Every structure is written in structure tokens, then in C-alpha cells.
Amino acid sequence: MNRVCKxxxxxxxxxxxxxxxxxxxxxxxxxxxxxxxSPTLCPDCRQQRRSLFxxxxxxxxxxxxxxxxxxxxxxxxxxxxxxxxxxCWWSDNWDPFDYGRNFDFNKPFFEQxxxxxxEVPHPxxxxxxxxxxxxxxxxxxxxxCYLLFLSGECEDVQYGYWLNDCKDCFDLSxxxxxxxxxxxxxxxxxxxxxxxxxxxxCRDGYFLDNCTGCNDCIMCSGLIxxxxxxxxxxxxxxxxxxxxxxxxxxxxxxxxDYKKQFREMMSSALKEYSHLVNAENCSGDYLVNCKNCHxxxxxxxxxxxxxxxxxxxxxxxxxxxxFGKPGELLYEINDVGLNSxxxxxxxxxxSLSNSLYCKYCFNTANLxxxxxxxxxxxxxxxxxxxxxxxxxxxxxxxxxxxxxIGEWGEFFDPKISMFGYNETVANEYFPLTKDQAVKKxxxxxDFVNPxxxxxxxxxxxxxxxxxxxxxxxxxxxxxxxLTCEVSGxxxxxxxxxxxxxxxxxxxxxxxxxxxxxxDRMTLINPRKLYDRKCMKCGADIKTTYSPQRPEIVYCxxxxxxxxx
Length: 564
Fold this sequence. Notes:
Elements: E1 2-4, E2 11-13, H1 16-25, E3 28-29, E4 32-33, H2 43-51, E5 60-63, E6 70-73, E7 83-84, H3 86-89, H4 109-117, E8 122-123, E9 127-128, E10 136-137, E11 139-140, E12 146-149, E13 155-164, E14 167-176, E15 182-185, E16 191-197, E17 203-209, E18 215-221, E19 227-230, E20 233-234, H5 237-268, E21 270-272, E22 276-280, E23 284-294, E24 296-300, E25 303-337, E26 340-356, E27 359-368, E28 378-381, E29 384-385, H6 388-405, H7 426-429, H8 434-439, E30 456-458, E31 480-483, E32 490-491, H9 495-503, H10 513-521, E33 530-533, E34 540-543, E35 552-554, H11 556-563
Parallel strand pairs: 7-8, 9-11, 10-12, 12-13, 13-14, 14-15, 15-16, 16-17, 17-18, 18-19, 21-35, 22-23, 23-24, 23-25, 24-25, 25-26, 26-27, 27-28, 30-31
Antiparallel strand pairs: 1-2, 3-4, 5-6, 19-20, 28-29, 31-32, 33-34
């Protein structure tokens, strides 16, 4: 079945398997199944709409509305939402049912849910089982971490995104099991590796791309189990370390040139069409131990999924962004997992089952249109309690009402997002200007955080006052504010960060951590599949490398023959 997206106008396909999935996840109330209709938006527009509700890494200073303490939050103070610090939100000092209300059949459901969100308290940040990690969000089991997001089991890590089991690292994205690394993306099991992408089991290297099991290599791509390579050329050990010494001396002055050279090297390199490891009947990129997963990206141990992104240990799920670990029968969700089952159209929920249209609900079941419910409560609508029979009767009537006014089967209306478009993940994968976002009906935030307190500000023009030799950088730099050479935003260097740069002879970054994150994200291919031919044998392939890109793209068989 071919459909046309009502938002962008692009065509998309709905298969028989898709229809079976929508039927399978359709809820039943009082013995009647309420069918989930097929989507009206294409997969990209559905992902964009969900992402409007995901502010993962834009932080603000706010105040806990209960204890009145200052708190770091994903909600800026100008938005007027009630924010609680972690201790207050998880305490028994407030009752989410105090905000319950009757459903009004004269108003759209989304309007009523929006009214609830404007009154019920929201957690400033979501993090658990962590020590000294006040500036982390959607993160757990971490220690001594700063500006770490969507990550777990990390220690002494700063400026990280989607990390697992990393230690003493700075500026990493989508990486794991690594130590003493800097500026790394989509890499695993690495040690003392810098400015690199798509590497595994590599150590003591700089500017490596798509390398495995390599050590002591610089500015190389596509190497497997190699040592002492410079610009993809083999050197003797003595020749390599002489080159390395020259390289490190020139690094502060030539870092921009080296990054440009690295990008050019990546663009001209041989690439395998996709990163699929033990993936049976799958399409997408960076899939490990998956089966029957299509148009999926950055997923481990998943089965029978489609249009999913950054998911772990999940089954029978469509249109999901982040989490799982595990989850099953989920549809149109953000950050839902930890044994969540049969949960639809929901954001930020753990151990939630048989529920629809919820936010910030944990360890509970049988909810509809609720926020802030936790602790084994069930049969609630708009934060009001009902008996099981009352709940089933009323939910059935609400769904029929939503079907009548065109709300049923759709994720939350973008108008009720609690964030500006520019604060959300949507702007990372689907960047828009303010005018473009407003024209599409999306919110935009003009709130600006106050500048960091500093003894003095180093502008872009007088950045030369900072010595190029890291050993000459004064310790007082941690009291200064530096100006990002791209965005103009002020940022500071932390004590731990300065020590790391000095220990590893790295230059002070000239860009704000947010800009460095954006730069790393540009190394990642768009989450979109293209039909192409292998440039070696002509076999049909589905790949995230568009036909217009310069890389040489091979199917799996041809690639393995070439590199081994």
C-alpha cells in the first residue's frame, strides 16, 4: 500500500507485515479491539515529531518548585513548567493524583493532556544510581561524570553521548568499553585513541577511520590489525615514532588542517555498505545481534523491529527512539524500556505496560493520558483513579471520541511539546532555522542561559593569548571563559579536562562542547537508506551512503575480499 505523507508530501509504503503489527499492538478494552490506523506521516516525519519531545542535552539553571533549591534542568525557567529536583520528584511529598481531572468530551485529548503537563511536576533531570553526576541526563550507574547524556556504567567521563562502560574519556559519541580517549564516534574497545571514527580494538592512534585491531597508527582508514602506519603507509617502528613526534609538535597549530585532511580521507575511502554484525534479514546501520529489523539504526540484540533508533534488547516494536533494555510491543515511543510492554504513544517511561499517551510514568500499568504516576498504580486517566471496569469503559469512549476528531493513532501534537525545536534532538537530525520551524508549526525557544561566571573572557580575536604548547597553559585557564570560534557561545575548561589535555599533549579546544557534539554528529551518515549497486560486483545493496557521495561502497562479500 502506498501512502503520501500529510506533512512533507513524500510517498512511503505500508506493507502487509506493517498492517499485522498495527493489528497486533491495537489495544482491547471491554473485549473490543481498537485498531491502530496506518500512519499518516512518513517514517522521517514520524521520527521528527517524536524528537520534538526529546530534549536530551540542553540544560538550564532552574529552581525546584518544592524545596526551592537551585537545580539543573532540561526545562528553561521561562517556560513556566513546574520542575522538581530528583529527590523531591521521587519522594512521597507530593501526590500526582492531586492533579487528576475528568475527561472533557468537548475538548481535544491533546489539549487536555497539555493542560495536565502544565500543572503536574516534572523531574528536572532523569538519572539514577550515580555518584557526583549532577550534570547528567538519561544516564545511570555513572561516577564523576559531567555533561554526559544517554549513557551508563561510565566513570570520569565528560561531554559524552550514548556511551557505555567508558572511563577517563572526553567528547565521545555512540561508543563503549573505551578508556583514555578523546573525540571518538561509533567506536568500541579502544584505548588512548584520539579524533577517530568507527574503530574497534584500536589503541595509541590519531585520526583513524574504520580501523580494527590497530595500534600506533596516524591518519589511516580501513586498516585491520596493523601497526606503525602513517597516512596508510607502513613504516618501521623507528620511522613511525619520528613521524609521530613531528605530528604531535604540529598538532596545536595544524589541528584544523588535520581535521580537514581526515574528512577528505574518509570521503575517498573504501566503505562496506553497512555495519551489520550477526544481523539476519536486517537493513539499516550499526546493528549487532539483530534479526528481522528493517530501517533501524544503532541497535543491539533486537528482533522484529522497524523504524527504530538507538534501541537495546527490544522485540516487536515500530517507531521507537532510544532505550528498550528490554521492551516489547512498543509503538511511537521515546525512551521507554526496562520491561515495558504494550505501551504506545509515550515518552520517558520505565516498567510501564498496557498504557497509552503517557509521560514520566514508572513501575505501573493500565494508564491513559497520565504524567508522573509511579509505584504500581493502575487504571488511571488524566491522573484520576478508576476501577478496572470504569477504566475500560471510559478509555473505550475516549478512543472513539479521538477517532471521530482525528487524534487516535497519532503521536502527541507538536503544539504541546514542552521544548523549543532548537532545544531538541529534532534539530540535530532535521536542522531548521527559526523561520522554517515556526512555519511548520513547531515551537522555538529564544531563551539564553546567562554566561558562565569567569575572571575574564577570551574572545576569538585574542585566543592567541592561550599558548599553543599545552604544557605552557596556566592552571588559571579554568577560571576563564573562552569564546567558541563557530557559535560565539562562552564555555569553560574544567580542571579534569585540563589535566587530560596536559597528560596526553592535546591542544585546548576552540569550540564549545555543544559545537563539538554537532561536529561529531556530522561524521554519522543520515539515517536514510538508498538503493545502490555494489561498486565492485554490481549487486543490489541498501546503504546510508547516497549515490551522490564520493565514497567507494562495496557489498559485504566484495569488501571482505578487499580488506583481508
